[in-house]
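Help needed: design a sequence for this.
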């Protein structure tokens, strides 16, 4: 295990620090420039078509189709996978390791990540096709194979990158999307809601960590709950996601705002440290030499991607199941997804930490780790006597955040396995789902962070082929964006829609849009 951890650290450092972070920012910057800073210049339009359309039955109403889910369900399922432990413990880790300045780089990565996610979703819709169940299947593997692979002499390269992406996505689903999330749920829940007769029964120990009967019981319950949802397929996952996600994000933001407004006098100081330490690290943070500048950038960008997944190509696999006909329309939801996840939720977490006094901002000292920092920040307000309501609140938040992340990633893993299995997909995907559900128990009982660390590496390995595909397909993204702007924003009637790489799907969708006047 130690040797495995050493090898993983080397690969992880290379993938993220040497290549991934810079490729990520460069791709986001490229797509931002090529689309004319779309996330800024068209902010009114994408806000209107996303959050402004939540009361539109065409957006939120269930499709009744086996092949697809609604645009809102697609967003909620994508947010289910992205709004997770990274929004709480991930932000805490970024601040503890990289200082408050890491938050600035998290924002910057999100700003450019909006257009990376936008581009991924456009390509996902444009290159999607129907699978053996008649459901839509889309994702990086398809625009790598059919998009990049469509260029002269690039067929083999496109296929190879598609396979690499799918393998890494399937493997990452067991780590970031399963065991890592479940482990955080079990540790936080059993600690906050301790039941002595169960927690005192130690099943085994590893180092200084005990695995108790309480953990086993919670793990079994989670395995059953996830199994009930996952075996029901995407439709059931989407229904659960659209029920839980708005409630859980809303409650977390409200709770965070209460903390922030209670410490309103410290907000200016918090922002001051975020911006000043983004470029000029204080020597007090991290010892005499301070936090390394590269560490600040890496932690901010890495944790930002870990949270919103822009650039990984993962959420494309559920956005591609939307009932939308217009690629750019789903791309707009991709912009909003990153905005909601990082600019709103992660910023709430950062301000809660930096304003509540749980960290000495001048010395960079805290007695808490990344797993307990936010809970202690909530305890500064939500605590009556010896009852720590803040701790309970965060334990429940992590439970809901991580549980829905598991559901979302089960779909991603299924789609990756479906692609790899080819004609055997109907059988292989069922086997995958069974294994995925059983692995939940391993997550509940594991004492090492190696599964989490390895999945972090697989995330980076997913990101590289996906970003190569996005960059290679950037001319197409420009064409699709220009086509949409001409028709939907400027109202030019003589421009024909660009909807799919497949002539048959293009013709069918164009006919539906013409007949229904779909906006």
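Sure. Designed sequence:
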């Amino acid at each position: 295990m130690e040797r495995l951890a050493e090898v993983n650290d080397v690969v992880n450092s290379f993938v993220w620090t040497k290549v991934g972070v810079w490729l990520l920012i460069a791709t986001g910057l490229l797509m931002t420039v090529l689309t004319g800073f779309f996330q800024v210049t068209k902010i009114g339009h994408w806000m209107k078509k996303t959050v402004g359309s939540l009361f539109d039955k065409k957006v939120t109403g269930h499709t009744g189709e086996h092949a697809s889910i609604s645009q809102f369900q697609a967003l909620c399922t994508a947010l289910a996978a992205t709004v997770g432990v990274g929004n709480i413990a991930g932000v805490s880790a970024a601040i503890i390791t990289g200082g408050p300045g890491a938050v600035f780089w998290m924002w910057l990565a999100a700003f450019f990540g909006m257009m990376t996610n936008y581009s991924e979703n456009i390509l996902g819709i444009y290159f999607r096709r129907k699978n053996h169940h008649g459901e839509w299947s889309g994702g990086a593997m398809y625009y790598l194979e059919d998009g990049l692979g469509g260029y002269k002499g690039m067929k083999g390269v496109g296929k190879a990158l598609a396979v690499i992406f799918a393998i890494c996505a399937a493997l990452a689903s067991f780590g970031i999307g399963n065991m890592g999330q479940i482990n955080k749920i079990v540790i936080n829940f059993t600690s906050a809601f301790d039941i002595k007769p169960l927690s005192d029964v130690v099943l085994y120990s590893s180092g200084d960590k005990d695995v108790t009967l309480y953990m086993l019981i919670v793990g079994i319950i989670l395995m059953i709950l996830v199994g009930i949802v996952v075996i029901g397929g995407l439709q059931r996952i989407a229904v659960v996601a659209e029920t839980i996600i708005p409630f859980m994000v809303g409650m977390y933001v409200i709770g965070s705002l209460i903390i922030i407004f209670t410490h309103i006098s410290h907000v200016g100081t918090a922002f001051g440290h975020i911006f000043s330490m983004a470029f000029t690290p204080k020597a007090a943070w991290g010892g005499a030499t301070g936090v390394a500048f590269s560490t600040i950038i890496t932690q901010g960008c890495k944790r930002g991607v870990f949270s919103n997944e822009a650039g990984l190509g993962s959420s494309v696999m559920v956005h591609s199941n939307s009932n939308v006909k217009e690629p750019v329309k789903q791309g707009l939801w991709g912009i909003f997804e990153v905005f909601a996840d990082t600019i709103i939720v992660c910023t709430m977490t950062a301000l809660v930490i930096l304003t509540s006094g749980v960290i000495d901002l001048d010395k960079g000292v805290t007695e808490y780790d990344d797993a307990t920092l936010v809970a202690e920040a909530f305890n500064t307000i939500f605590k009556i006597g010896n009852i720590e309501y803040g701790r309970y609140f965060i334990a429940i938040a992590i439970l809901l955040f991580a549980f829905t992340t598991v559901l979302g990633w089960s779909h991603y893993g299924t789609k990756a396995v479906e692609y790899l299995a080819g004609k055997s997909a109907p059988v292989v995907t069922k086997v995958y789902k069974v294994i995925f559900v059983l692995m939940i128990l391993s997550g509940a009982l594991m004492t090492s962070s190696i599964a989490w660390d390895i999945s972090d590496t697989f995330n980076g390995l997913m990101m590289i082929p996906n970003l190569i595909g996005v960059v290679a397909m950037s001319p197409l993204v420009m064409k699709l964006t220009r086509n949409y702007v001409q028709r939907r924003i400027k109202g030019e009637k003589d421009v024909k829609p660009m909807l799919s790489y497949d002539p048959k799907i293009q013709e069918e969708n164009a006919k539906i849009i013409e007949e229904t006047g779909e906006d």
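The beta strands are 129-130, 136-137, 202-206, 209-212, 383-384, 387-388.
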